[in-house]
Amino acid sequence: MNKFYNIKNRICAGERKEKSKERMRRLRRAMAGKSSGIDGLLVTVGLCIIALLLCVVMKDKLEVFIGTIVDALTAKATGILG
């Protein structure tokens, strides 16, 4: 009787070990998926902050740059249409 009990415990322990491994695999997959989403969000927010800072710091130069582009496009459009 004792032999069968030990064999049963070994089989059950092996099954528990496999279930435990499967749970760990699922947990790792879930953690990896959430991690990349958070990283993407942080990168997006960081880029938005950098763009905002550039707009604030270079406000005058951006006005000149955009004015130059608009003037050049207006001159080209006048040349084509006129």
Describe, in plain words, how this protein is organized in 3D.
This protein has 82 residues and is mainly alpha-helical. It is 96% helix and 0% strand. It has helices at 2-57, 59-81. The longest helix has 56 residues, at 2-57.
Short recap of the structure:
The protein is mainly alpha-helical and 82 residues long. The protein is built from 2 helices and no strands.
Main features:
mainly alpha, 2 helices, 96% helix, 82 residues
Strand and helix layout:
Blueprint: H1 2-57, H2 59-81
How far from one another are the termini?
106 Å
Secondary-structure element order, N to C: HH
**How many DSSP-defined strands?**
0
Low-confidence spans: pLDDT under 50, at least 5 residues?
Answer: none
Question: What share of the residues lie within helices?
Answer: over 70%
